Structure formats: C-alpha cells, structure tokens
Amino acid sequence: MKPITLTINGETIRATVPPRLHLADFLRDQCGLTGTHLGCEHGVCGACTIRLDGAIVRSCLVLAVQADDTIIETIEGVTDSGEARALQAAFAARNALQCGYCTPGMVITALDFLATAPDPCDRSAIRAHLSGNYCRCTGYEAIIDAIAMVGGQ
Amino acid sequence: MKSAAFDYVRAGSVAEAIARLAADPFGTKLLAGGQSLLPALNLRLSAPALLVDIARLPELAGITLTGTTLRIGAGCTHASLLTAPEIARHAPLIAEALAHVAHPAIRSRGTLGGSLANADPAAELPAVMLALDATMIIEGPSGTRHIKATDFFTGMFETALAADEILIALEIPIRTQRSGFAELARRHGDYAIIGLAATMTADATRLAFFAGGPTAQLAQRAAGALGTGPLNHERIAAACTALAQDLPAHDDPEASASMRLHLARVLLRRVITPWINPSIRTPITA
Amino acid sequence: MSFTDPDRPSRQIGRALPRSASRRLAQGRGRFASDITLPRMVHAAFVRSPHAHAELGAIALDAARAMPGIVGVFDAAAIDPWCTPWVGTLTHLAGLKSAPQYPLARGRVRFHGEPVAMVLATSRAEAEDAAEQITVDYQPLPPVVDALAALAPDAVPIHPELGDNLAFERRIEAGDIAAAMAMADEIITLDFDFARHTGVTLEPRAVVADWNEGEQRLTVHAGTQVPHMLQDIYALHFGLAAHQVRVLAPDVGGSFGIKIHIYPDEMAAIAASRALRRPVRFVADRLESFIGDIHARGHQVRAQIGVTRAGDITFFDVDDLTGIGPYSAYPRTSAVEANQVINLIGGPYAVANYRARARVVFQTKAMMSQYRAVGHPIATTVTEALVDAAARRIGVDPVTLRRRNLIADDAYPCQSASGMRFEALSHHGCLEKLHAMMGYDALRAEQAALRARGVRRGIGIASFIEITNPGAAFYGVGGAHISAQEGATIRLDAAGHVVLQAGVTEQGQGTETILAQIAAEALGLAPEQVLVRLGDTDSTPYGGGTWASRGAGVGGEAAWQAAHALRGQLLTLAASLLQADPSRLDLRNGQITDDDGTARMALADLARIAHFRPDTLPPGIVPELAATRHHVPRDYPFAFTNGVQGSLVEIDTETGFITLLRHWVVEDCGTIINPLLVDEQIRGGVVQGLGAALFEACRYDAEGQMTNATMADYLVPMAAEMPDIEIGHVCTPTAETALGAKGAGEAGTAAAAAAVLNAVNDALAPDAALLTALPLTPARVLAALGVIG
User: Residues of chain C whose pLDDT is less than 50?
Assistant: First the structure.
C-alpha cells in the first residue's frame, strides 16, 4: 500500500492505495466519483477520460500511485465549476447522448478540444479529436453538432 | 480485468532507476507514460514484481539544440512534442507522425522514450527515428553509450537496451532535407497496416517503413534504387520494385504479405513523387 | 384525434423535446448497475475455458480458496444445487432443438470463454488473483468451427444426445419457382458472407444480486432491457416464487439486444448471492464481453434473383446457413435470426415467387442470438445487392428497377411471398423523397465527371422493411414468458402532477420522455409535470421491456390509454364540482377548461380538493385518480415499417480504402412522437450498420479461439470515419392504435450496410469487380479489383 495526496476537483485527498489500483477504480470505488466510467480498461474506448494536471488522460491507463501530487478533474468537477455547463446544455438540446455511458468522457474530451482548437467549429477536427472516444448509441453526429454549437458561441 | 499485484517506486534519479533495474532485471519494469504497459498489466499479459516510475525525472526531460544536434529527452510526451517549436522547426517529421499516434488522451501521457523502448513493429516513432538518423543515448550501470537507431531496433518488441539500461534521450542531426510521412490505418489513431517515414538529403534517402515486418526498418534497396540526384518517375518505379527485397513477408488478418508490399509501394510513390518537383521543399535548417 | 395538426391544443406528441435524463447523464450522475455498491458486497470473477471444445477433468479449487479476500469458490457441482438448467427452445419454431445449459460448464466445455469456475472475493482484483490459481484438466475434443463442416455426416456432434448439429431448419416455398425461372431472362446467383458481430455495449453486462435471507427475497440490479422477463426466469430457475424476486433496471450503458438474454455467468453470480447470503456484483470486463456476450449475424447465404429484360423481378431463391454456437440462447432462442432472414428477404418487392431454406447449426463458438435489427441487415443486404446486380445485368438504373418492382403504395393491405402481412407501407413515397434529398441525378452526373478524372465514387440505394410492435406471435405463442403486452399506470398526485409507471424500459432511446409527452398531451400538462418511473418489477405494471422496436408503439399506446382513462376521471370529477357536462370540458395548460379553452379551474385545485377536502365534494362522489391500461397488438403479428437508405462512397482503388462521404435515410414509422429522438435513433442505428459494412467481425481461428477479443482488434465505428447522415420521413400511421406510432429503433441498422455495399459495387462496376462479403475491408476491395491475389 502506498500513501498518495492529490487534488481532486479542488479537494485535497489523502489515501492509501495498492500500487496496482488504476486511477479510474480509485476515483470510482474510493472517492465515489462514479461519473468516470470504465468501458474497456485497456485504453481504447475513452469512457474513463479525465483531466490530470490540465491534460486529458485515460484514467484506466494511469495508476493511482502515479497520480500522487497531481490535480485531477472529473466530470463531477467540471460540472460543479460550471465549466461544462454550455457543453452539457448543448448535448442535451441536441440529444447527443442516449445511454449516457460515454458522455462524461466525451464532455471532458470536448472541453479539451474547445480549449485547444484553432477552429472550434471545424467538424472534421472535432471528429479527429474525439476519434478515441467510442459511442455505440448516437452515431456521433449529434455530438459533433453539440460541440460545434458551443464552439460557435 | 485487473492487474496482478506489483510493487511500485518512484525513482529519484536515473542512477536510482538503474540500480533498481540491476537488482532484479527481469522482475522490474520501467514505467514512463504507461500507455503500452498499463494495458498489458490490466490484461495480465505482463506481471512484473516492481514498477520503477521514471516519468518525472528531470534528466529525461526537455529539448535542447546544440549546434546541429537536437537532443530530445526520452521523457518528453507525445503531446509536448506535437506543440514544441523546436520540433516544428527542426524535425517536423516527428510532429507529422505524432498526429497519427493514437488519440489526444493517450498522447498526453505517452512518451517518446516509451514508444521507442517498447519497439512495437507497427508504431510510428521507431520509423521516424530511423528516417531522421537518430542516435539513442542509453545509460546503464557501466555508464553512457550511444547507439544509432539502425542498431537499436533488433526485433519485435526488442531493442538493444539491456535489462538494466535506460533510454534517456535521443539526438537528431539537423540536416537540410525533405521529409514525408504516410500511413494506412483502418481508423484514425489505429496502428497502421503499413507506414512510411522518409527523408531525403542531397546525398541520401532514408525510407523507414513500419508495420512491414517484425521491426521498423530502412528499405535500403529501395533507397539505393532511388539513387541520388534529380528524382524522376522511373527511379521511383525502380524503388518500388526493389522494395520487395526490403520488406519481409508478413501476413496478418488485416493484410497478406503481398498486400502489404503493394501498399508499401503505394505509400512510397505517394510520399516521394511530390519531391520530383524541386520547388516543393521542406527544408530543415540549423 | 389527429396528431398531425400542429395547432391543436396541448400539443406534445410530435415535439422535438430533449430527453429529461440528458442533464443528469451529461453531468455524470447516471446510476448504472456497475456503479451500485452494497454493504458486504463481493465480486465475481470466472475461470473460462481456453478451449473451444474439451472434456472437463478435475477442477482444483483449493489453492484459490487459500488466497486473500476469497469468500467463495464454485464449480458446477457447487453451483448446480442453487440453479436449475435451461433450454433455449420454443414450440412455434418447429423442430428447434437444444441442450440443457448450466451456469458453470458440466462435463464438457463447448466454446472458448465458457464459464467453468467462479470466485467471489472482496475485490475483483483478488477474485482474479484467485481464479488464476484454479487448475482445470481439459481433454481437448475436435473443435467444430465452420457451420457447413458442422453439418457433415462425419462431424463431431456437439451434443451427442441430440444426434447431429442441425439445430433448426425451415423452408418456405411460395408461388411457382420453376415458372418464374423460366420467365426470367437473367438469373443472377450471388454467394454472401456475413461476419459475426457482437454488440460492444460500452457498459459491459452487469448484475448486482442481493439475496436477503431475512426477507427471503432476491433483488437483482441488472443492466437489462427486460426486468419482468428476468423476474420470471430467476424465480423459475432459483426455485422462488415470482414475488420473491425483484429486478431493478437502473441506467443501462447500451444494450441493443445484448442485454435481453440469460447468460451463465450472470446466473452463477446470482446463485452465489443466495449461497453466500450476501450481495454479489458481476461486471463483465471487456474480454469477457467479447467472448461471453451474444454474437450475431454470422451467415452464409447463396441467393438468386430472376429478372426479365423489361425489368420485372420474377423470383428470389435463398439458402441461408448460420452457426449459433453450442446452445440455442434462452429464452428467445437462436433460431429467430435465420427465421427472420428468410421471412424478410424480398419483402419490399411485389414478387410472388419465393423459395428459401434456413439452417441453424451448432458449432463450438460463442453463442449467437438476437442483436439490434435481428436478421434485417442480412435480409436487406441480400435482397438489395441482388436487385442492384439485376439492374446492372439488364442495364437499368437501380432506382428505375426499384420503382418498377417495389410494392405499390396503394396496394395495401397485402402480404409478402413469405407470408408477412403489411398493413400500409410507403416504399415509393420514401424512394422518391430519398431521390430528391440525395439530388440523385446530379450525384450521378458528378460521379461520371469525377470518374473521368480518376476519382472513383459509388452510389448505393437500399429499400427495407422493419418488424416493429410485435404481438404474442413473436415469442408468447411458443411458450416463452415474454410479455408482448405493455401496461401503464398513471395517477394524479396531490399537487396536480402525474406519476406514470410503465413496463417498457429506458435504454437511452428516450422512453421516459416520449411517455411523458404522450401523457402530457392527454392531460393538458407540460411533459415535466409527468414523472415517469420504469424498470422496477415491484412497482411497474407488467411488460415486456425493450425489444423489437416496441416502446413507442406498444408501451406508448398503453400510456396513452391510461392517460385518457385518467383524463376521463378528472373531467368527471371536475364536471361534478363545476356542475358542467364532462363532455364539454377539456384539460389544457394545467387547467380544467371549457371546450373553447376558457379556464374553469386549475388542475392543482382539483387535486387539492380531491386529496384534502373530499368533504366538499357532492355526495356520493369518490374521486378515482388513477388508471391502469394495457395494450397488445392483435390485428397484425407485427407492425411493419419501411424506408430506404442511400450511400455515397469514394474508393481509393490503390489502397482499397473506402471513405463514407454521405448517407441518407427516409423512413416511415407512422406517428412520430418526438422527431429529435427518432432521428437520433436512426443515426445511431445507421452507424451500427456502417460498422458492419466496413469494420466489424468476430474473428476465430481454426481451433475455435476468438482472436480479436479486444477493443483494439475488434473495430467498432469511431467518430472520424463516420459521415453525417441526412434523414427524412414519410408518415403512415398504423390504424391499429390511437397513437398510430410504429417503431424506429432498428431501421437505421437494417439497411445501412446494404446501401454501402451497393455503393461500393456501383463504384467498382467499371472494373467488373463485385463484393458480396462484409465487412468491406481494404483486402477484399483490392482482391476484388485484382490488385492483390
């Protein structure tokens, strides 16, 4: 077991974790942050995407011990801060989610796109940025629409 | 799909990491970005006793330009290289290739050194290093050694790194050259069916293919057939013919060996043909 | 009542309202079965067979028992006392045979991934650690991988007691095939190969089972489409009365038919909860999903079409072969897919001559059964590729051939050669609308111009029919306890809002929202004043859940009828208070109004009086403020819908790569309750079909091992490769219900791959290359072009 201290959604968290525990399981099981979802646990589906020190990462491909002394933001954090409000409203208005399981990862990835993209309305650039986030329900178009809507605001 | 148990230590220095490796070279694995290691752990394809985390070592960080040599720390993430001005200016081939490497949330963690040391035959960066004539800087218990990229990739997921050595940086000679990159992947960010990273100076062409065999490799005969001096379609056709001797046969469910060779020729034509026109230049200058 | 009048009062049906659950889900506030944690809960992990076929010898469990955190270890002998076996047969699928299936393999393993032993531990990681310590003696038997080889006289019978490996066979012969062959000027024969797929729901299958020894009750939180069906089956196989079983369906992270079947690992985990008397969570990991979830769509079809030079299709003749794994799935069986393939082939066309055979075969691969659009993609691809091939052969445009042969829009009611009864379809209306939306003639001109410049584009069209709103004909008549009827219970609460409980379930398609719209329109409320509760067998009326595109058409109708009954109660009560004629009163905007809309009394006031001041009501009036109604389709076995899809592709003939440029859909699902949700159902369905077209395939080696059971190797459609999809509608309501709604959940998947295949073959026609195998990989394209051997 290893002690870690990290900031999660603005709160300082001290915990003791087994080295093998990945960050997604730590967030879900130890912190109760079940908005981060697990779809594949081998880094392909994007459902567990969160922010670590400002950059988006797959939380199934980061060990909790690696996250010692980092700043973590999850869907709960970007919701509480209001940062994701416009995107979440656009996702709802455009019906850009069905089962909702991919949505937290999509929203976190979309925030990253909007923060970094030279042209936030460029649909093919949005598609490329989301290319590692799997959605079985929507067919993606409504998600692209929602992000472009916010990009145009 | 949970990893087997292991111990973990964050190394305070390269020296400490080497000492940890030396203590149990086969039970210990280095952890940098973890973007290839963690899937293997989660799938229980790998079960080390100890992970030594080297991600935060300052000795592995940074990009420095000295004379005509660009030194890139092995710990640089893909994302940082994609936006680094030194890369854009002096080694744009790296950034061009990185745009094809997985997805943003992987590139933010994945490191240059990790990609090279992992030596996945379908990975882009080993081929890029071959094309750029990079030199690997390796530290081990007996000190530092330099290995050319051409000698570094020894087989499928195998390199010249000894079990107690660490790739700490690589050096790229800055040359006036053209460079080009192309790959064919089923989906954006997937490992390629076949890919090519190429450079051409006044006196040498380097055609580095990946996913065409057990390791990224220079197509020497094809490069020889291209020769030096003004390019033309005939020389490119000759290079495509010669490619058959460069690429080992290799079937997988996505492509037969003959399809791979065909696609490699298509990429070779597509990357090199624009260079026939001397007005199209992508120079790298010191 | 016409739902097409946009100016009617209280209009809710037809509005493009966002879903009520979207805000919660977009905030990460979903509650999925895999999120549920209960006190003393333990986690299940399985030892799964690495062999496709083997005799099971000794299973050594002791080393696992000694591992840290272990609470229980089970093999078949330990779990069987807790759970009886099941057999996936139904009497209306005459001749279908299967063998008993157990939670953990007994005696033999019959597919790679079959559960052999189970470990329960305080964490999933510990359970996996211990599972690694279990050793199993396997004596390998010959794998039976290829479906055709499984039928050979010398094939190893997978269940010796069943004789051979033929699980089911059905033939159809209609009209006069010999005469139709003689009449045809051209007969084209094509051999199709369809890959196996699986659903790849993003949330894997998940159950949290909680046997309460004190209550003597089993509560199962399940990521499921069918809570009442599970309740019935759990009671039956765990030896309980139905009322001892409560099934709760929380948010479900994708289902698509995958979460409608009985799975041995889930049954084992639930049985373990009873044996251990504590909660058990089983969440399949992605590897378990690939080898343990239901697969579908692996078919080989030889098919013929006859056509005259004038362009009349004279017959279809098909022979379908499909391998379903070692068992027929329970309780829906694994014969339905092939059955639907031959029921649906040729369905859009006025062709009386039809011959078909379907053979369903046991093999030692993962089980196949129902998955979104069961059988439709196979049937549509076969039919539409044949029609295009016929058009090419006689040199007419594929749209022209369809105009000539599709069933006329005024020919209904009628039935297909296979006996499918159509109430009212709109093939020509849809085709003409699609033709206009695509700008078909301009696309053809552009295609020719680009072809001259070496750019290779193709245009594909695919008409389709879709089975929706099934009655009891689907399963009930065969003996399955699968409810075709749906119930809805609605009640007025004391504040003047309503609570609606229904048996249909929410999988993200928007059931909650459309039920709220339906009730709101009937009661003159806003949809947010209707609280919808689903997915709990303790509190919702009995229903079948989500399958066969029935939520809107069947569940919606029950909600409409229940809301209307409540409306009648409210107006009667209001009339007694207002001393008015109830037939002259209306409900609008939360008010009791006169029929001209003049407000007479707030509904909230009526609710208040009814609940708190019944003493002020006229003598003898006892307010009844709740109603339950049920609906089941009776006039037709299914409400067929129809539509047509179009695809524009570009092919890189050097690399074999296909780019999907544009995609169009026109479909007719009758009354559209919420166009926003319908369109996104169609888009999502189309992309599932596009995955089939280009990417998806469960690959097996000769030993029967699935070789691409990761998300890096099983290629699902991702955002970067998918096109935007343009959607249009034609509206032919069913007369069987007041709402007139038919299903829309499977229309997209039904024909997307067919449209793409036709587009690709259109692009390759100048090279005389023809593809009939899906997915359309670069290797197949290059081979068809003769670029590679």
Answer: none
